[in-house]
Amino acid sequence: MIEKAFTGSRKYWAWILFLLIIIAIGFGYYLLQWYRGLGVTGMSRDVSWGLYIANMTFLVGVAAGAVMVVLPYYLHNYKAFGKITTFGEFLAVAAVIMCMLFVTIDLGQPTRLVNLFIHPQPHSILFWDIVVLSVYLLLNLVIGWYLLRSQYYGEQPKAWVKPLILISIPWAISIHTVTAFIYSGMASRPFWLTALMAPRFLSSAFAAGPALLIIACLIMKRFAHFDVGKEALQKLAQIVLYATIITVFFLIVEGFTVYYSQIPEDMSHLDYFFVGLNGQTTLIPWIWTCLIFWVAAIVLLINPRTRKNEKTLVLAAAMVFVSMWLDKGLGLLVPGFTPSPLGAITQYLPTVPEILISLMVWGIGALILTILYKITIGVKEERGEEESHAISFSSQ
Amino acid sequence: MAGIAFVGLLAAKPIFDVISRAEDPKKAAEAQTAAQTQTKWGMAIKIANCKDGCTDCINACNTIHNVPDIPDPKHEIKWIWDVNYEDVFPEQNSPFLANSLKGLPVLVLCNHCDHPPCARVCPTAATWKRAADGIVMMDYHRCIGCRYCMAACPYGARSFNWVDPRPYIKQINPDYPTRTKGVVEKCDFCEERLALGLIPACVEACTEKALVFGDLNDPNSDIRKLLATNYSIQRKAELGTGPNVYYVI
User: Which residue of B has its CA nearest to A44?
Assistant: First the structure.
């Protein structure tokens, strides 16, 4: 099965080579960070988490978003998703690996990573995040690979995989809930101290994950001539639409409480984000880009004509993906840290090494995704999709 | 239904108690029974006693603890330093703040909280609440540098070594460890001096007697007598962290 990854067109190999170059450049800068310390990044005493943890948080969402194709197919026997469930599961695999890499490159002492396992502390939410992410990675890797392998050999999947599939559905919810708890349990940061954090994370995840899947499906259609079908794409687009609307609704709800109650400390963080604070306006273009993208994407997705046109569909999906990254990445972290507990406004801008090291992780994720998708396309083209995922829980 | 839910909640409570507490529950129970005899170090700062521009306590601390002097404010390491009154106590701000308090530099340091959020979030127990005397300790060799504690501290008391600190130490004190890049550090109430029967370096260095250190569990200690006869406030006491640094206004 794995041999499918070793045969491909010139374009396939050119893409692989491109990713390897990105990874190599980023790795060079990671060595610089290794020797000089995290001082090569733009982080500071006041803004002590930055681009790395922002990406980690966002990618947990992408991983969790994959459940949006797994659930309708397995639990509701929604046939149109038959061709894309494996892609959803492998998207989760690549995204979780990226999360783990982002946490690792953010550590000041990466060689002490092992302390997490020899001195585990159940009172730390980070401990639980590592537990749920590791299990989610294993679940998706085992389920995705095993079902694809069964298809490859033309075998009926064995029953042991069923409970794993059932567990993977609530597990997807758990990874993003626990990641939200990292933030929402700290009395020190009013911007994060909201019970709405986990629901917000989930809604944006259910938009960003399927949005990336739409983009991936359209790329595969164009370059690998592998068509997942109109119905699957349209259903994904609707999921993205409603999840985006709910995300915007949650932001409005959050904004109402802060601005109607007028608690100064709570307002200072949102002010910094939306209108600037004490003349500091770095983040304003950030959030307004995000808002414009949301509105534009909702318009494009709600209108059947633009939703069904693949060009406008991919544009909308890209806008959703980017805006969710803006909102849940640095848009979550920087206003959380600014102003600091002592009222200081310290500007944070990622440095070149920091950006290139982040691109290394994205490159590794894209490489894993490309290889897994290449194998999946190879198997599905050879076997046809009638037998795909010949496993089901309901007879509807 | 409500009954079942209630029983469920009762069953879940001990679990929540365990995960929301930094200390080992068994040790915490022991600590509670021993509360009468146990030490609880605390500090009181008489903010009006500070001389204009005096940094004796800060210098003493920095010298003894090999705190580097890093010029880039983004990479600074701070154990004890001063900040304007208005920023230390934002909730005390009013348009008619006494002139004597406006812009007054106030010393800030780790509060050695009763319920330290930093120790609660630490994934490796590299920072923890010492049961014997309440000091929030740091193990520089166990810290993985995830900086979760820095996000969790409501006082901004923690610093991270963004770069190797050693080139920025003017004179290395061989009696105290220097730190490596990639770990978090903060004030430890001079636990190494307390072990030798000495008072913290900052308290010793202050010629104005602005800093009072002692056992908050001992009603006859200087600090308890001071707090019993003066109005004092704590930073962000409303968060329930139980800070053990008091400010006499």
Answer: B74
